[in-house]
Amino acid sequence: MAKRFGDFLDAVSEFLAARKGLLPLVGLFLILVNLVLQFVPSGFWGESDLLLHLGVIVAILGIMLSWAL
Fold this sequence. Notes:
About 85% of the residues lie in helices and about 0% in strands. By secondary structure, the chain is mainly α. It has one domain. It is elongated, with a radius of gyration of 15 Å. The two termini are about 25 Å apart. About 10% of the residues are buried.
């Protein structure tokens, strides 16, 4: 189990090392989707700021990982 998790982390880190701006762009996309959903009647997604919070977290983690990698 630990070997598979280690292999997974190695593969993810190699993937993200070559694409340093991917996670901040995904975070920005989630924030923009949240903005659009505020104006469209979409039930839960429009009323909550879940995508906004996820977008901010993903963007901050992406920036931190890009510095580390």
